[in-house]
Known about the structure:
The protein is mostly helical. It has helices spanning 2-7, 9-52.
Amino acid sequence: VIVGFNASMLFGIFLLLFGAPLIFFLIVIYSRILLEMALVIFRIADQTTKKGEKSESRDGIQWNL
């Protein structure tokens, strides 16, 4: 925006009204994608560790009947 105002008044106003919000929304979308990818990675890691575990045998369970 500052460079736009140094170039001309109209270009600075254009960047202030359209350029800055557009860049802001692109950064928000990019951050959201990165956070969602981190969540997916942790969920995949959680699921792979659960599948690798062996279930306990029923012989060691104390049934309270």
